[in-house]
Amino acid sequence: MTTTASLPADFEWGFATAAYQIEGAVDEGGRGPSIWDTFCHLQPTRTKGADGDVACDHYHRYEEDLDLLARYGAKAYRFSLSWSRIIPLGGRDDPINEEGVAFYNRLIDALLARGITPWVTLYHWDLPQALHDRYGGWLDVEESQKDFERYARVCYERFGDRVKNWITLNEPWIISIFGYATGGNAPGRSSINKDATKGDTAREPWIVGKALILSHAAAVAAYNQSFRPSQGGQIGISLNGDYYEPWDAASELDRAAAERRMEFHIGWFANPIFLAQDYPACMRQQLGDRLPPFSERELALLREARPDFYGMNYYTAQYARHREQPPSETDYVGNVDELQENREGTSIGAASGVHWLRSSPHSFRKHLARVYRLYGRPIYVTENGCPCPGEDQMSRDEAVRDDYRVRYYDDHLEAVAQAVAHDSAVVAGYFAWSLLDNLEWSDGYGVRFGVTFTDYDTLERTPKKSALELKKQIEKRLDSEHTVADLLRR
Ligand code: PNW
Description:
Blueprint: E1 7-8, E2 12-16, H1 19-22, H2 35-42, H3 58-71, E3 76-80, H4 83-86, H5 98-113, E4 117-123, H6 129-135, H7 141-159, E5 165-170, H8 172-180, H9 204-231, E6 234-240, E7 243-246, H10 252-275, H11 281-287, H12 296-304, E8 309-313, E9 317-322, E10 336-339, E11 350-351, E12 358-359, H13 361-375, E13 379-383, H14 396-399, H15 403-422, E14 427-433, E15 452-454, E16 461-463, H16 465-475, E17 478-479, H17 484-489
Parallel strand pairs: 1-17, 2-3, 2-14, 3-4, 4-5, 5-6, 6-8, 7-9, 8-13, 13-14
Antiparallel strand pairs: 9-10, 11-12, 15-16
This protein binds 4-nitrophenyl beta-D-glucopyranoside (PNW).
């Protein structure tokens, strides 16, 4: 294995989680229901029968979990706040739940006591159910912005004295497309999914996308106006998106298809958010009026709210092949076929424990370089990880020998180091997904992404091999002579 020592000496790193996937205690401490409680309970066939009622019981076992982080040597921990634990009904005139605030205060203080830096995601998919009922949640571009801004302000006010790293939203693409196009995630709306009774795949995801972009911007602008001067933190957003290689590398049309696919994945959000521009031209061209435009006032807000960093969630890559037929109204990928093998039959990478993920570190390096070149902000990899092949069927003693995951992390960290050394990318941190095996959304508890094995009967935690390897894999790539500030000056 090659080792490129190019990561800045102050490289941030640790592990990531999300509230609904680990906390449990959904009826405790005054928490209100979210759209994920509703989705799991009313439509259990859409989550393999699983729900987050108990999950990893992190709400009661957080001290133990933070001890694991300390044992793994983590410098930082990325977690999300449950909006409906803090404001049970979610809205700007609804009461704050002090018990919920107190829980996160304890969590933050317990992290700081261990010398671990908190990285807080405001929204990781768990919209208060009351807002969905009141005005359709993210389908209402104006209302959702105002309520999200107020929620963000409450979080800065209550936690910002100690939290200096904020992520507004996790994966707006997944929120819009899985929630409102395919219906695979809460609130499960779709007009192309037989399990869904409501929705409009041709229109709703693009409205929700706009609501998310402007809600993010409102939260950043609020931080800039009222909190940055006194608190001095940084704020960004986490975008997902695979890297796409052309199915036929010799085909001009497939090369264009790969680039178009990435514009539909990333440019949709990154052009408005990082460049204060309209959506990519290829989206406008294909989607026309279904893509709601930005007014002058909205573009001014976006200019005022440029994020400090780009949070990148990266898991895999695919091949894109152009389609001869024109796109249907429900197409959301830019009229391409997505494949895991190219024209020659070469796989994009080694299969993992879940169908959509193959290990493609070479594509990761290209992805880092492309994103930095286009959007020009320091990148923090806010998620990267995998389940091992067959891990869902393994006993604990088998699962802790997770050599596939050890290799996956090492290969992907090497890709980061090479992108920094050779492609001029500025990468300032890395968070492995995830600290614990947890509720993998519509895949239930079968698919395990953790570096810690969770026994869902006893809730006992057992570190896997990868948990203790990550620190070594990062440290062997550190360059003690340089910092992130030096990389930015190159
Ligand atoms: C992310 N895909 O979601 C989420 O941020 C995590 O909460 C989740 O547990 C993790 O990745 C692992 O899945 C994704 O199908 C879910 O391409 C699915 C996809 C990508 C990201």
